[in-house]
Amino acid sequence: MSSTSSRNAFEDGKYKSDLLTIDSSSRCCKTTLSSTPSPPKQLLVATPVDEGEYPAVMLLHGYLLYNSFYSQLMLHVSSHGFILIAPQVQFTLSGVHDATISWVLIL
């Protein structure tokens, strides 16, 4: 692959990105369906600013960490044309409290 056709993944991409925080009390989806539930925990979304269709990636953060710890990484990947969704996953001694993951998967 020639150097002129390849891009460095460590450099910012060509898309300007924005980071959105969606709280459990707010509606996150632009839909006419009133049955769409709000997320059970905070949701962090990094998305290109320009309208268009982009592939979506779910980012599950590390054990006992906050999704916001990954905000710079999310913005960087989003600048390459991806929408990143990072639910705040609640970990307990008995395992992952998966209500948030289940909520994301039903949308």
From TrEMBL:
Q: Give the matching SUPFAM superfamilies.
A: alpha/beta-Hydrolases
Question: Which InterPro entries does the record associate with it?
Answer: AB_hydrolase_fold (IPR029058), Chlorophyllase-like (IPR017395)
Which molecular function GO terms apply here? chlorophyllase activity
Q: Which GO terms describe its biological process?
A: chlorophyll catabolic process
Extract the Pfam families matched here. Chlorophyllase (PF07224)
Question: Which top-rank group of organisms is this from?
Answer: Eukaryota
PANTHER family reported for this sequence: CHLOROPHYLLASE-2, CHLOROPHYLLASE-2, CHLOROPLASTIC
The protein's name is: Chlorophyllase-2, chloroplastic
What species is given as this protein's source?
A: Noccaea caerulescens (Alpine penny-cress)
- Taxonomic lineage of the native organism: Eukaryota, Viridiplantae, Streptophyta, Embryophyta, Tracheophyta
